[in-house]
Amino acid sequence: MSAPGEVADVTTLGRSGVPVTALSFGAAALGNLFAPVTDEAAAETVDAAWDAGIRYFDTAPHYGLGLSERRLGDALRGRARDTYTLSTKVGRLLVADGPAGGMDGEGFAVPATHRRVWDFSGDGVRRSVEDSLQRLGLDRIDVVYLHDPDDHAEQAFREGYPALERLRAEGTVRAIGAGMNQAAMLTRFVRDTDVDAVLCAGRYTLLDQRAGDELLPEATARGKSVVVGGVFNSGLLADPRPGATYDYAPASMDLLDRALRAKAVTERHGVPLRAAALRFPFGRAAVASVLVGARSAAEVADAAAMFATRAPARMWEELRGDTRVRADRAVWEPGSRGAL
């Protein structure tokens, strides 16, 4: 095992025993998120992640109407199944009656061969897992998350979550949870259900620490894990400049100013802003892994290099003290995984 804080540092999701590396791979881009990726580039990207020590890979049917699952399964199939952890998601069934000749209208550069149908019913959850196994071409899925149940809370809690519990009890999956771009409902999952982990995107970053108010403390208290995604807030914290995006929309001048102030602080200490953004969530003990999307081997290599960058404690102190950055809300807990 690597030293704490390195890419291949491993912990488990809650009490499930499912291992995840500190840096994990998000495969949305393999579904042609915003722009096409070739099959060859997709395979090279997964190979680069593997070579960097990453052993936790996350995908979803939503990503490219199943293309991400198919490509990720192809890339992992020749590797021993017990050497990596794979997660996918349920909540959107893919129905093969998309408009002829059209393109997907939800941000993926793929033909609209299917349409997405929201379904958090018990039958829908089971069918989604079966369909994902077919697309992946693998013998099992380790972790399954309810995907974006924001507008489907009643069905997700009443039907979808119990279906995941049954799949876990049967041994079909090893760990269960929910993945969302908000913290409030994820906190409810942590409090009111027996999930092993939740995936929280964009809500525990240098610019947005809402998950730190209740979600992370609740997860710590209950022995559950949080996987943090979206640490760059869709681009602003990777490269703060006019025109950069924040949560997939043009960033406001206020947000750009805060990101540039954060960059000035980190660079005074010889740390790229990308490195600080990747390391930041590990100040909280509940955080098991940071999920990073990549569409090329070069992007994976950069993420791994940034993640391995060590930051001095005085840099974090300066960030916390800058009220414009507002990273002062962070709490560096005993048992956190090497953020300093």
Write the layout of secondary structure elements.
Elements: E1 10-12, E2 19-21, E3 23-26, H1 39-51, E4 56-58, H2 67-76, E5 85-90, E6 92-95, E7 115-118, H3 122-136, E8 143-147, H4 153-170, E9 175-180, H5 184-192, E10 197-201, H6 215-222, E11 225-229, E12 245-246, E13 249-250, H7 253-268, H8 273-279, E14 287-293, H9 297-307, H10 313-321
Parallel strand pairs: 3-4, 3-14, 4-5, 5-8, 8-9, 9-10, 10-11, 11-14
Antiparallel strand pairs: 1-2, 6-7, 12-13
Q: Which properties best describe this structure?
A:
340 residues; two-stranded antiparallel ribbon; 10 helices
Number of strands: 14
- Catalogue the unreliable spans: none
Strand residues, percent: 15-25%
Count of alpha and pi helical runs: 10
Alpha-carbon distance between the two ends: 19 Å
What structural class results from the helix and strand content? alpha/beta
Strands side by side in the biggest sheet: 3-4-5-8-9-10-11-14
Which descriptor suits the 3D outline?
globular
C-alpha Rg (nearest Å): 19 Å
Average pLDDT number: 94
**Main sheet properties:** 8 strands, parallel, barrel
Range of helix content: 25-40%
* Order of SSEs: EEEHEHEEEHEHEHEHEEEHHEHH
